Amino acid sequence: MAEHILFLTGKLAEKQLRRTLSEMSPDFEYTVHVLGVTVAALMTADMIQRRLTDTFGADRILVPGRCRGDLEALSQHLGIPVERGPEELNDLPEFFGKARQRPDLSRYELRIFGEVVEAPHIDVAAIIRRAEAYRRDGADVIDLGCLPATPFPHLADAIKALKSEGFLVSVDSLDPENLLLAGRAGADFLLSLNEETLWIADEVASTPVLISTPHADMDSLDRVIAKMQDKGRPFIVDPILDPIHFGFTDSIVRYHEVRRLHPDVEIMMGVGNLTELTHIDTAGMNGMLLGICSELHVRHILATQVSKHACKAIKEADLIRRIMLAARESNRLPKHIDDGLMALHERAPFPLSFAEIQELQTAIRDPSFRIMISTEGVHIFNRNGLWTDSDPFALFPHLGVENDGGHAFYLGVELARAQIAQKLGKRYTQDQPLDWGIHVQFPEATAGDLNEYAAAGSTLKASREASPCPVPSKDDKASRSSPCPVPAKDDKTSRSSPCPVPSKKDETE
């Protein structure tokens, strides 16, 4: 017997929801029920518990993706599972087709060495702080980068301090004295040993990273590999990634050749030679390089965050390595797995067409401003009309908020977000910050747990202090970005509207 799903929605979204479900031709039965609220996205668990008196024989209930409140408690109250669907109706097909098969991103095989490049110039406490930040971003090993002709008197102390905090430690130097000292102080890895310094591996227990001399000499690399294999010791090989126009393509070929000749050796790639030395956003470069690593089973990378534009390189690499492993093991493209690295653009930035937005505007019965975007521009509308432009300044004369500073500020912020999203091709949702993937983390109160109700925003707080407007009930907290006055109970449709408060008729129509 086919599963029966009850979809709860609001009046404005009902028609689109029914159309979307019909076009899906789903393999489940469904019922669409309007809960008596205008905007579906502002539905809450408490509201559902009060208003839903019939579950229509459904096996489970799907509520809008932005529905706030404790759905587990609601499920227990109703006696059937209640789940959040996607944030946008147009994402329903993907929700039912792909979301259930989302790969496990808890696993990875690639180890990230996060290099503290200026380690000789900062004290041990600063090194520990940097290491902790790198570990939070995903680094598995903290690499202490030595500098040519630069004393590092606290090298041993730094290694011991890092080890006491539970870090794996590597030291990156071409100075034999630094490498020998590091090995004796307990470093787990030494970067890098060549034919002339391979003797250090006999003196310490550290795992060496092997390079050739000169670094493009494959015969030299083959010789150090053979010597370490004869010793029966673990080692890692680094064929050296060169910057663009300084041997980059040849170095990629070199990695392929090393894997062909030595199918079982551990290999490292120093991705910083590309991310640091190319003024391009690093996510794409990291994605491409770690894709090569995944194909060649390169299981170690050296990542750096020296240049300001590369400040998220480790965090990017952490997510990419998980995506690449999941894609490879499931024999699929690294696509539709996770959108955390799509900072500038999105797969489906415009859920509604201009025509659908126009249709939506005709159903509005209150003065609250809604802001949406489409390929045609930024749209702001209420019951009085719909205005479209690519420039928010051109929209201001239509809004009638010249004498309402808080409301004008709120609309200015939202229209600016909408303009940025429309230009870049990103999703825009009114009252929500733009999603920059893993690159920007917002406070929990802004982008946090949907089981909790959102706190009031700054414009609403300010207007409460300046006026005797009533504080909303718990169900009204979705209006965190609203200027005063606060809507009546259960009316969250007017969160951006000027006075007066909509009537009860406006709330439910």
TrEMBL record:
<dbReference type="Pfam" id="PF20123">
    <property type="entry name" value="DUF6513"/>
</dbReference>
<feature type="region of interest" description="Disordered">
    <location>
        <begin position="459"/>
        <end position="509"/>
    </location>
</feature>
<dbReference type="InterPro" id="IPR000489">
    <property type="entry name" value="Pterin-binding_dom"/>
</dbReference>
<dbReference type="GO" id="GO:0042558">
    <property type="term" value="P:pteridine-containing compound metabolic process"/>
</dbReference>
<protein>
    <submittedName>
        <fullName>Dihydropteroate synthase-like enzyme</fullName>
    </submittedName>
</protein>
<feature type="domain" description="Pterin-binding">
    <location>
        <begin position="93"/>
        <end position="335"/>
    </location>
</feature>
<dbReference type="InterPro" id="IPR011005">
    <property type="entry name" value="Dihydropteroate_synth-like_sf"/>
</dbReference>
<dbReference type="InterPro" id="IPR045406">
    <property type="entry name" value="DUF6513"/>
</dbReference>
